[in-house]
Design brief:
alpha+beta; Immunoglobulin-like; four-stranded antiparallel sheet; four-stranded mixed sheet; elongated
Length: about 180
């Protein structure tokens, strides 16, 4: 019976390889095939243009004078010494110093131990908002330097905030020493 399954496995493997290797329906690429693929890519790009953020200027374009401006009171915060296995947080305050409504699309942390939350509603010119960053020190020790990338309808589109600190070592509990029996 075992010999039968071994032969069956070989036949199945040979059939799978034969089907994978048999590729008669596809023509070889050659110059015509490559030119056709390039022409199709150009046609697809023209039919489906990318939609850009109108407030983001290309390298050769002038900056939009009416764009919102994301101005943080501070872009870096130092927690100093952080207790082991604790969660610490800091709130970054910002003001829209531009001429149109500011909308934060998202905020992405550099690792899973850092969690940002932010003002979801549009911030009018002159208005204020908050972005809170929480850091979980569980399982970590030593110097930390984490970043949060804030993407908004501003020029430039991304602003980076930084949190840093030093996570203290967890206290070690010495093993009890056995006392000799009297």
């Amino acid at each position: 019976m075992r010999l039968y399954f071994n032969h069956l496995n070989y036949w199945l493997l040979a059939a799978a390889l034969g089907l994978a290797a048999c590729n008669r329906d596809r023509p070889e690429a050659g110059a015509q095939g490559m030119n056709a693929a390039a022409a199709q890519a150009d046609a697809d790009a023209k039919a489906n243009p990318t939609i850009d953020n109108p407030n983001v200027a290309a390298e050769t374009e002038a900056v939009n004078p009416n764009a919102p401006v994301l101005t943080f009171a501070e872009q870096q915060f130092d927690f100093g010494r952080i207790a082991p296995d604790s969660v610490v947080g800091h709130t970054f305050s910002f003001t829209n110093t531009g001429k149109s409504a500011l909308l934060i699309a998202d905020a992405t942390a550099s690792c899973g131990c850092t969690t940002p939350s932010w003002t979801k509603d549009p911030v009018p010119p002159g208005g204020r908002g908050r972005l809170e960053v929480r850091f979980d020190s569980r399982g970590k020790e030593g110097i930390i330097n984490k970043s949060v990338s804030v993407r908004a309808n501003t020029q430039p589109a991304t602003t980076v905030l930084v949190i840093k600190g030093v996570i203290l070592a967890a206290p070690t509990i010495p093993a009890p020493t056995p006392t000799p029996a009297p």
